[in-house]
Design a protein that fits this description.
Layout: E1 5-8, H1 12-23, E2 28-32, E3 48-49, H2 59-75, E4 80-81, E5 85-91, H3 99-109, E6 113-116, E7 127-133, E8 136-138, H4 140-153, E9 157-161, E10 165-171, E11 174-179, E12 184-187, E13 189-192, H5 198-204, E14 212-224, E15 231-236, E16 241-245, E17 252-256, E18 261-265, H6 300-310, E19 317-330, H7 333-336, E20 342-347, E21 351-356, H8 366-369
Parallel strand pairs: 1-2, 1-13, 2-9, 5-15, 13-21
Antiparallel strand pairs: 3-8, 4-8, 5-7, 6-7, 10-11, 11-12, 14-17, 14-18, 14-19, 15-16, 16-17, 20-21
Helix pairs in contact: 1-4
The structure holds flavin-adenine dinucleotide.
Length: about 375
């Protein structure tokens, strides 16, 4: 099979790239490990359309997400949940940013923040101040369906689901990639959009892996009642938590800095002890944590206890289900808590571009490299 562009990964980055390249008239193949699109991080995340508030210690990340915020909301209006109040609060103990610093930062980045009565949502004993902000949630399924539609509409994009890369080599001006079931694909351009498998794919193509820390993360779906139903709450800046609507699903997601990550790996090709119980998942190719029989037990009791300490009386939540995905974090980004989207052109002819995304709405960074 010969294509103009081979895209590895059918998350938001792979599908956005497919629609973009297809629209340019290029013949594209999207090869995806799973049996369908959006089975990993593009579904399993907090569904926050970042406006910048989360990154008072990385103005560059805040600015980048704020820059794309309106574009993303305008691009996927049917997928955006705007029907809740988004409140950011600063913990009065153990926070790396205090309320005056947070306000100054919002003014600096140009994002609105209005102080509200913290006691409306929080136990004032533990919260220094609370601010109403403007930030929405996106529905991953609606974004997935729209991108699949946009890619298909071009009439130029084919999909290969259940794809396993058996080997990849450079042959003159094309890459030749062998997949399972005897399929061989040749393309003069490849995009690596495999997120937690970025290094694994780089290695298969003979490139140096990046310095990445991997975290197996749990995003918990909870049912909420009362005032929490119309609110998304984030307590900052450190080992705290967030509870906010998960897209248009009717549930909230619950995450916390301390308990969302269950296991970490600092190896360039990720090694986790749970891989011993799932032979499909190896340092050479990660399988899907969400469907893995060896996935961790939920941390809901701990997250719930933490949230209870901070929330006003009567703001209860009930456990519904857990979703698991691996988050790759650049080691250099750990220092300042930045989440850059890194795009690298590693070869020209044939072309090889690799993207390690920081956020959903920085997907437009791909425009510059494709
Ligand atoms: C816990 C958590 C919370 C987050 N919260 C937010 C948030 O609230 N807001 C936000 O903007 N961002 C958030 N993020 C980050 C965001 O989810 C990612 O930046 C984004 O989803 C990455 O998109 P992607 O397409 O690169 O990755 P993915 O959606 O993971 O897609 C990569 C695809 O590559 C496939 N693949 C892997 N290996 C191969 C292979 N060898 N061959 C072919 N295909 C392969 C995978 O199966 C997968 O489908 C969060 C991330 C996590 C993990």
């Amino acid at each position: 099979m010969r294509y103009d562009h081979l895209i590895l990964g059918a998350g938001i980055y792979g599908l956005y790239a497919a629609a973009l390249l297809g629209k340019k008239g290029l013949k594209v193949l999207v090869a995806e490990y799973e049996d369908g699109p959006f089975r990993r991080a593009s579904w399993i995340n907090q569904a926050r359309v970042h406006h910048g508030y989360h990154y008072p210690r990385s103005v560059s990340t805040a600015r980048r997400t704020a820059m794309y915020y309106r574009r993303f909301n305008a691009d996927f209006p049917f997928a955006i949940n705007r029907s809740f109040r988004k409140i950011y609060a600063l913990s009065s103990v153990g926070s790396l940013t205090n309320a005056p610093q947070f306000l100054k930062f919002c003014v600096h980045v140009g994002i609105p923040a209005i102080e509200i009565n913290a006691a409306a949502y929080f136990n004032p004993q533990y919260v220094e101040a609370a601010f109403e902000t403007e930030e929405y949630a996106f529905d991953p399924f609606a974004v997935r369906d729209a991108l699949m539609e946009r890619a298909k509409e071009t009439g130029k994009v084919d999909f290969l689901f259940g794809a396993r890369i058996l080997g990849a080599e450079r042959q003159g001006r094309v890459y030749s990639v062998a997949f399972n079931e005897g399929r061989k694909v040749e393309a003069p351009a490849v995009l690596n959009a495999t997120y937690s498998s970025t290094n694994q794919v780089l290695s298969k193509f003979g490139f140096q892996p990046m310095n990445i820390k991997y975290e197996i993360c749990e995003v918990i779906m909870v049912g909420v009642g009362g005032r929490l139903k119309e609110a998304g709450l984030t307590v900052m800046d450190g080992q705290f938590f967030s509870v906010m609507p998960f897209g248009l699903a009717g549930s909230h997601s619950l995450t916390s800095v301390a308990f969302t990550p269950h296991l970490s790996s600092y190896e360039k090709l990720p090694v986790f002890r749970c891989q011993e119980r799932n032979t499909e998942c190896t340092p050479g190719q990660l399988a899907n944590c969400n469907t893995c029989p060896a996935r961790p037990e939920t941390a809901f009791p701990y997250m719930n206890q933490l949230a209870k300490k901070y929330l006003a009386a009567g703001m209860e939540m009930g456990y519904e289900s857990s979703l698991f995905a691996i988050k790759p974090i650049l080691l250099a980004a750990e220092l300042d808590d930045s989440r850059p989207t890194i795009t690298m052109r590693l070869s020209d002819e044939p072309s090889f571009v690799s993207v390690l995304s920081g956020k959903i709405n920085t997907v437009y960074d791909l425009d510059e490299v494709l």
